[in-house]
Automatic annotation (TrEMBL):
The lineage of its organism: Bacteria, Bacillati, Actinomycetota, Actinomycetes, Mycobacteriales. One of its GO terms (molecular function) is flavin adenine dinucleotide binding. It comes from the Bacteria. This is Cation diffusion facilitator CzcD-associated flavoprotein CzcO. InterPro entries: FAD-bind_Monooxygenase_sf, FAD/NAD-bd_sf, Flavin_mOase-like. Keywords: FAD, Flavoprotein, Oxidoreductase.
Amino acid sequence: MSDNITRARSEPPPRHTRILIIGSGFAGLGLAVRLSQQGYTDFLVLERADDVGGTWRDNTYPGAACDVPSQLYSYSFALNPHWSRSFSSQPEIQRYIRSVADRYAVRDKHIFGCEVTAARWNDTAARWEVQTTRGAFTADIAVSAAGPLCEPKLPDIKGIHTFRGKIFHSARWDHDADLTGKRIAVIGTGASAIQIVPSIAPAAARLDVYQRSAPWVLPRVIHSYSRPERFAYQHIPGLQRLVRAADYAWRETFVLWQNKFPPAAALIALIAYIKMRWEIRDPALRRKVRPNYRIGCKRMLISNDYYPALGRDNVDLVTDGIKEIREHSIVSSDGTERAVDAIVLATGFRVADSPTFDLFTGRDGRTMSEVFDAEGVQAYKGTTVANFPNAFVLLGANAGFNYTSIIYAIESQITYVLDAIATLERRGVRTFEVRKSAQDNHNRLLREKTAGGVWLTGGCTNWFTDKHGHNTALWPDFSFRFRRLLRKFDLDAYETTPSVVAVAD
Ligand code: NAP
């Protein structure tokens, strides 16, 4: 008997489930909870790591914290009156996510340590066939909840592989690496870097911060909640929702100057200038940190300790660009060689070219990467993609918010997915696939909304704009409009095939 036949006989048949969710960050976990609240039991969550939490589980770098107010950073169905401060730290957020998994008893719906290696649509069987590191699965409906910030982007710098010291990405922090008294380089000055730099600078012998573009930095109004405040949030009905609503409304005003009326950004820029002037005494350093693009073009950052950290005697902001990395040093483009023991790559994530796109093979045999390469990264309402039947993508194209809580986007999409599943069952629909024309119309509208906005015209490069100059990641309008768009599943926008037995409406 050949090896192949032996293996084929010993392999268990694929495990079938109605709904298969891939990833258990805020999105996948939120969907699992809502499904279970609605009485669905026939679903599974595949998670490659050994815990829930997604990006908040993975980003354990020193100083990791959220720059969206805590009151907005929870599910609407599980407010957290126990936040210790107005902007939460990563450990506190991760504890919250874990507590939700426990409180809503969805851990037993998870298969941890289970990495999806391929997901192929079988048109004849009308199912997703999913290969994983823990066996094969089939599903009527697949939900990608892997998220846009799941895969680190590693820079392609000459000689990087020859470096002999410690080198790691901010989202894969090496906690065994003792950085005390070491010469450290941080590459990047984005949202992660500006939290890392002040946290590691005091203990470092030297810290070189390699900046390619200067970020706009605004003050962070941080407030520790007192016991009476937390008690009030816990016991006064509606109080926390009121504060949450106020935070929400304030954040919505960001859309006005980002997308609707960019000249209003001058006021925000003025605040940032005053802060820069106040916190940096050295004019040469001030010149280096002054951004050369309009505020809002990249994600705006908030920090009270980044500029002071740059001003420390043991910290150097290097703006000359990196020419090459050698075994024990980094050479900048002006020829200066700086000795270094450890390099932190705070260089962001693969959003527009996420490797998760390679996993999905659609109806016509092309992977999502191939479709996106040819047509650009697109989705219908950020949630479904033509050529990929019976599939949803949470935080898909243009479903991201850069000014308010991403959980608001996630919950909007979950509403849509739940309504879709109920509609399909009610109407006896076996397969659904968004019409390309509906997707194209949606994307045309998105482009109209983005045109003239600061993301495209602000004179910067950013991770939400693709190589064709299209914003493919962010929702370019008020977040409540996103919610309105997704409040009902619009079956008319989809090609469908009926189930064998249809249930009358
Ligand atoms: P990022 O914002 O994409 O920043 C990456 C940084 O690395 C940028 O300064 C970039 O420079 C630089 N860089 C990339 N490749 C480089 C290269 N080859 N050589 C030199 N510099 C290079 O990444 P991030 O800071 O990890 O943040 C990513 C996203 O995570 C954020 O936008 C945000 O959505 C999320 N995040 C959120 C929080 C939060 O508080 N909620 C905290 C951290 C992260 P350029 O600007 O010139 O490209």
